[in-house]
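Troubleshooting: if your tokenizer reports a length mismatch, compare your output against this known-good record of 108 residues.
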Amino acid sequence: MASEDGSFEVSNNERTHRFEVESGEHTAFLSYRHVGGSLTLDHTEVPPELEGRGIASKLARTALEYARERGLEVVPICPYVSKYLKKHSEYLDLLNDENRRHVLNSET
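Known-good structure output:
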């Protein structure tokens, strides 16, 4: 949902395992799975009506901060999250060596 300043608030819908942004009848989300001590980030989806507002970036940042706060290792399955990680090196410490290499060597 948009706040008074026009920014969007991300909620963690633990029931559906998704970080979500709702705006009117549209919902953008980043789906995830908890697997042991890791957070697997599977898929980001932003409806066309919500594109171009930085929502996917906010979803990724929220998920990565969530993982950091809980001491979880991140497994970036979602191509958008991998692209985000490549641009935001401050989160690379959340990845194991193999996933870090994969993100840094990807063509995104």
